[in-house]
Amino acid sequence: MSPNDPENKWLHLNQELRDRRIAVMIVGEAHLNSERKKKIDDIFESVMHVEHSEIPGRPNAGGVAITFNKRLTNTDNLKRWEIVPGHALQVQFEWHHGKALNVLGVYAPNSSPAVNAEFWKKVLTFYETHPNVPRPDLLGGDTNLVEEGIDRLPVKEDNEAAVMAFDALKTKLKLSDGWRRTFPDEKNYTYQHTNLKMARLDQIYVTEELFVNSREWDIEEPAVKTDHQMVSVQLTCDEAPDTGTGRWSIPDVVVKDKQFMKYAVEETHKTAEKMNDLTSHQERRTENENPQTLFEQGCAK
């Protein structure tokens, strides 16, 4: 499919990043190779950057990508590590004031519980044998696995070997399920196989430092055509600048009130006339009566 085809999911992904102000998005079923990625870069180079990993010899099957909204992120000095080709990709980018954030995007295999378990073991082995690679601050994507039966409908425990393999990885990396910690008793799902079978397969795991600086954990409908829901979270860091509530403004409901607007216009004209009159007669200017005090009094009405 052409990158500028209206049905192309990358067009919708770019709109999603822009409209929802998403900084980083992990994409499963990326179906990218170098040629397709170049076409995407040609179209979206100024606003979106994509790092991808494809299954060797099978670019049309699966694959994982990490997409950056260049309106909100600095992509100048990215570093990447292909953990398991087509299934696990880590990218490091500059976050705030030189602080780096490492994101591990996964699209776990689902051909069998044994293959899923082996995948998590491969990821763990990679970090154990590559001590110089920074550990991820965040792991996200389609795990094709649930840790607890509550995350499936009907309730069902997943394969023990696969769950234990994933548990060993998240323990090693010191990551936890942020959504479940935020909603310990809630049932929600990200994938619907049939009307009667659903599961929370798409998840975000974060370090403790990120979790305490997180908010707005959510599962929502994406704009892209897919049978999965989107998991999202807002993250801040200790180095982020403090921001206030912004400038005060009159609520829209008040502005639409005709009686109020008539009063505001009349009073504004009166204040402006007084200020102009006083400016033309400087001899009447005093410490308590001058254009500045008149303006302040007018704003206070």
Task: Explain the layout of strands and helices.
Layout: H1 9-19, E1 24-28, H2 34-44, E2 48-53, E3 64-69, E4 74-84, E5 88-96, E6 99-107, H3 113-129, E7 138-142, E8 152-153, H4 160-173, E9 176-177, H5 178-182, E10 191-194, E11 197-199, E12 202-206, H6 208-212, E13 214-220, E14 230-235, H7 252-255, H8 258-280, H9 291-300
Helix pairs in contact: 3-4, 8-9
The best one-word shape is elongated
Helix/strand class: alpha+beta
- Proportion in helices: 25-40%
SSE succession = HEHEEEEEHEEHEHEEEHEEHHH
Radius of gyration: 27 Å
Q: Could you give the distance between the termini?
A: 61 Å
> How would you characterize the largest beta sheet?
6 strands, mixed
- Rounded mean pLDDT is 88
Range of strand content: 25-35%
Strand order of the largest sheet: 4-5-6-7-12-9
Poorly predicted spans: none
Number of helices: 9
- Work out the number of β strands: 14
Describe the structure using short key phrases.
14 strands; alpha+beta; 27% strand; 3-stranded antiparallel β-sheet; 301 residues; elongated; 6-stranded mixed β-sheet; 9 helices
